[in-house]
Amino acid sequence: VSDLSERVLSGDVRAVARAISIVEDEAPDAAALVRDVFARTGHAYLVGVTGPPGAGKSTLVDRLTAEFRATSTVGILAVDPTSPFSGGAVLGDRLRMQSHAADTGVFIRSMATRGHLGGLARATADAALVLDASGKDIVIIETVGVGQAEVDIVRTADISIVMLVPGTGDDVQALKAGIMEIADVFVVNKADRDGADRLVSAIESNLSLQTFGPGDWRPPIVKTVATTGSGVPELLTAINAFRAHSTTKQAGRHRARSEARLREIVSERLMAKVDARALAAIVDRLSAREIDPYSAADAIVAAL
Ligand SMILES: Nc1nc2c(ncn2[C@@H]2O[C@H](COP(=O)(O)OP(=O)(O)OP(=O)(O)O)[C@@H](O)[C@H]2O)c(=O)[nH]1
Ligand SMILES: [Mg+2]
């Protein structure tokens, strides 16, 4: 692993791909790998892009990557919780992002779930660390959907871009799903279609229900046509404005994120120490109502 870590740190593309597979599989080496590279991370800016299926996320990420490339190297993680495919970009994304195929300054990878969604959020965060360690300046995380799992994944990013499209009804769903709270920038894509302005108004009126203090960031709404690139420079401006605005606040966000990850790993590690047979026995008693859940938990913790 230490050899692999060294190669990741030197930016070796094959090593980066291998390292991401290791964290994705939750292989035993994953922890050692993260331990080796962690001190050399913290440089990359993590950009989360989420939105309903087919919203144009990959098309936009492709355009955005071209803009970022003027000054930065870019790593892209396309996260699809519903896809069994991983280990490289899925075909559609590969085609869509073909413009960067020959560019060594861009690394594209898709991430799929290997079981539970919580694991995917963790694997994505670790994959982002790997890309960060390999020297990428920008790491873009694309996630499909507008539900809680995506919210969790996007939360690991430094900026959350929420993409909506007119006329799908997804807008209403998204505005309900707690997306309003996590969005730092809204993108209304497919602005070449009818209803874009109506969607912008809907987001506006939703935002007007929130109170913003004098120094607070009010999420801007950027209209884009990803297929032509229209609005993409404005999106980059919005990203940079947020980045400049939030440098002080970002520290608090970083700390909260670090704490959440630590708590998660500690609970996982503790659960792993619980004897499976003892656990099963207590579950039996719990389901037979011979013991209440709190006493059951106390018994397990006491045994540790
Ligand atoms: N008319 C129009 N079509 C667009 C626009 N942006 C993307 N598309 C098209 O919408 C389709 C889906 O685009 P993708 O970029 O694959 O969307 P996605 O959100 O990444 O899709 P998933 O990853 O499958 O959820 C493609 O056929 C794009 O060409 C746009 O602004 N206007
Ligand atoms: Mg996509």
Structure description:
By secondary structure, this protein is of the alpha/beta class. Helix content is about 50%, strand content about 15%. The chain contains 14 helices and seven strands. The chain has helices spanning about 1-10, 15-25, 30-35, 55-70, 90-95, 115-135, 150-155, 170-175, 180, 195-205, 230-245, 245-275, 275-285, 295-304, and strands at about 45-50, 75-80, 105-110, 140-145, 160-165, 185-190, 220-225. Strands 3-2-4-1-5-6-7 form a seven-stranded parallel beta sheet, with helices on both faces. Strand 2 (about 75-80), helix 5 (about 90-95) and strand 3 (about 105-110) form a beta-alpha-beta unit. The longest helix is centred in the C-terminal third of the chain and has 27 residues, at about 245-275. Mean pLDDT is about 85; it is low at about 85-90. The chain binds guanosine-5'-triphosphate and magnesium ion. Guanosine-5'-triphosphate (GTP) binds near residues 92, 96 and 226.
- Helix/strand/pairing class, anyone? alpha/beta
Q: What small-molecule ligands were found?
A: guanosine-5'-triphosphate, magnesium ion
Residue runs with pLDDT of under 50 for 5 or more positions: 84-89
Q: Biggest sheet, open or closed, and with what strands and sense?
A: 7 strands, parallel
Share of helix among residues? 40-55%
- Averaging pLDDT over every residue, what do you get? 86
Question: In order across it, which strands form the biggest sheet?
Answer: 3-2-4-1-5-6-7
Strand tally is 7
Distance between the termini: 31 Å
Helical region count? 14
Please give the radius of gyration in angstroms: 21 Å
